Each structure stands twice: as structure tokens, then as C-alpha cells.
Amino acid sequence: xxxxxxxxxxxxxxxxxxxxxxxxxxxxxxxxxxxxxxxxxxxxxxxxxxxxxxxxxxxxxxxxxxxxxxxxxxxxxxxxxxxxxxxxxxxxxxxxxxxxxxxxxxxxxxxxxxxxxxxxxxxxxxxxxxxxxxxxxxxxxxxxxxxxxxxxxxxxxxxxxxxxxxxxxxxxxxxxxxxxxxxxxxxxxxxxxxxxxxxxxxxxxxxxxxxxxxxxxxxxxxxxxxxxxxxxxxxxxxxxxxxxxxxxxxxxxxxxxxxxxxxxxxxxxxxxxxxxxxxxxxxxxxxxxxxxxxxxxxxxxxxxxxxxxxxxxxxxxxxxxxxxxxxxxxxxxxxxxxxxxxxxxxxxxxxxxxxxxxxxxxxxxxxxxxxxxxxxxxxxxxxxxxxxxxxxxxxxxxxxxxxxxxxxxxxxxxxxxxxxxxxxxxxxxxxxxxxxxxxxxxxxxxxxxxxxxxxxxxxxxxxxxxxxxxxxxxxxxxxxxxxxxxxxxxxxxxxxxx
Length: 498
Fold this sequence. Notes:
The chain is mostly helical.
């Protein structure tokens, strides 16, 4: 088959996947598998080889990241049950003061808290951000909303153990320790620069308090407690047909008044035993350092493994403990022990049950992305693209960023667009001589471009931080798009050195 035919078929399949997800409302995991099957058949692999390749791709990616995703999701569920977010943000306010809080909160959410589900993280931290905003002056709401939007979205795809970051590492065969280290090198300056630039523009006329903030919501007593805010925000997101940026949301079609709209069941709704539940009053409040110590230990172990590999020092015991699946298991067990001593066994068990529900959805979609990546590799697409990109390191990074950006604009999911874009170029990474971590970071950066009205995060930020739609288009859509470009820039800089 001619090169142009394979390129054309692959392009048509990608467009078909977008149409299935966006227009036909077919589940993203099913759409990716269907697309992979169609690609195999149309490029001449035959029925037997097509099904074998799809299943092998699914299994290979599960081997690499299945347990990692499960451990990270369960750890996040338990941390949420302990009320870690409220305690952490309150501490940040006292330590860094009003001016430094947007940066401190952004870095904390984007790096330390990525094992917690995005919607849960948003709902738990938004009330505290809302209370901090008036202390920052006239533009407090804009600055806090921007900091939250940028850090939440960047963390999913650039920071281990964010589920999309782990999936990208698996697809591109990037050691998780490398993804953690180089992800940190990109996400930290990206968050700081993006918040600084957005604050600069906000203070110089970008933000109009009269039209960008919803005064009626700001005065509403229902926003004083998390539960009231959650009901209001989710209802508002459903009214506008939002879809989650992460991989685990459930989608249902709701019919009413002669119109069809998409309702998103936030993963918040899947956590009935939240920290503010009826049992909360009887719990012994754990210390902040104690709550996060096991997670910090696991991240240090993973990072140390990457550094030992670079240094050529690899004693067996250290290699075993720094293996990501072992390190995250240690963190999960430690978090469970802390939680059992402080909030009780029943609440820990309830959090684990909900965590398993969420990880199942995430694992299926990640595996579907692996099927598509395997089919692209088998079809010969990798060799074709390698011919055009072999002379340049920058070109493939720009291409994967562009593909992820276009997919995100169309589909509205950060995770789906990042995984799909990375899967397309994964086969050519070895031939190009490019460190695959750069492709992972570029795909993640591109998937952040134009977070808009198809995103559940967009509507939750609007409702819970008292913004109008116009204001959210500035703080969330513009802010995260800026972060997308900034992250690409730092990835290109990083490509000079690795």
C-alpha cells in the first residue's frame, strides 16, 4: 500500500473517532477500539492480525501501567476521605500569604495532589479558594480561578501520578521515574509563568469585575458549604452539557423540554462517604505531614530510581524499592494505615470501593488507547512518519502538540486527546532518536489547548468560583491555553539537553 494511502486512512480513522465520541455519543473507549479495528482492516492487516494486534496492544499497556493507575487512584480516594485538601490549602494561606497563595496553591495542586480525582480535587479546594479570593484584592477571584484551572489541567497530563501522565508514559515506554523528573521540570515553570502572565493581563484590563464575576452567586449562602456548592455546580454543569476532562466520568443523555443535553455524573457523586459526611465529626484529625508522608515517600522512591539509573548505580534492594509499582504500593499501604488510625476502617473501605470503581473506567480507556497505538505501529504509519521527521527533533514535537490540540478542541477531553496523539507517534520515537518523554510532554501540553464549554471542569470552575461564562472563558480557556503554549516551549527547551 502506498504511503499516501496509509496516511489518508489513518487521518480518516482519527476523524471518525472524533465524530463517534463527539457527535454519535459513543463511549470514548469503544470509539478508540472501533477506530483501531477499522484502521487494521483498511490497511490490509486482515481480520486475524487486526484482532490480535488490538488485544496485544491492550494487554501490553495494562502490563506497563495497570497497577500503577490502580494504586494512584486508590491513594487519592483515601486522601480525599481524610480531608487532606482543606487542611493543605489552609496551611498554604498561612505560610505564603495572600500574594503568594495563587502560586503556592497552583504548584501544590499541579504536583502533589494528582492522585486525587480531578473533580474531587476541584470541589474540595474551590470553597477554600473562594474564601481566599477577597484577600487578594479586586482581582482575587480571577487570580484564584486561573491558578486552579492551570494547575488542575496541567497536573493530569504532565505530573506523575496523574492518570493521563501515567498512561502517556506507558504508551511511549517512558520509565515512570523519568516521567516524574522531567514532568516536574516542565510543570513547575509552566504553572508559575502562566499564573504570572495571566495575572499581568488581568490587572491591565483583561478582567472586568462587572461582567466576568457573577455577583448574585457571590452573595448566595449556599456557597458557604461544600455540599451546597457541589449540588449547584453539578446541576449547572449538566445544564450546559459539560463533559469531564478526565477519563473516568460517566455520560448519560437526558431528554427534557424537547431538547437533548448531556449530563455528566461527576466522580464527586461517586464518593458518598466524603470527609464532610456524618461520620466526620467522630474522626481524629490527622496532621498534614502525616497524611501526605506515604505519598511523598513513594514519589521520592520513584525519582531516586530515575537518578540512580542516570548515575549507573543500581543495587538490587534500591532498584526493587524504586520500581514504580512497588513504590506506589508502599505509598498506598502507608496512606491506608494512617487513614485507619484516624478516620476508621469503615470509611477507608468505602473510599477503596469507590476508588476501584473509578480505576476500572480509567484502565479500560487507557487500554483502548494502547490498542490504537499498536495498530498504528503495525500498519506501517511509524515508518512513514519517520521518513519525514528523521532530520528534525522539533517537528515531531510540534506535530504531536498540534494533533493533541486539535483533538482536544473537538472532543473536549484532555486525557483522550493526549493519549490518542501520543499513540500516533509512539511507533516512530525509537527511529527518530528522540527521548520518548519529550513526545509524552508535548502530547500532554497540546491536550491542554482551549479547555472550553464541553469540559465539566469549565462549568465547575464557573459555578464554584462565582464567575460568569465570559469570565470563565478568560480564566480557564485562555489561562489553560496559555499554559499549553508555555509547556510546549519548556518541552522544546528540554529537548536541547536530553
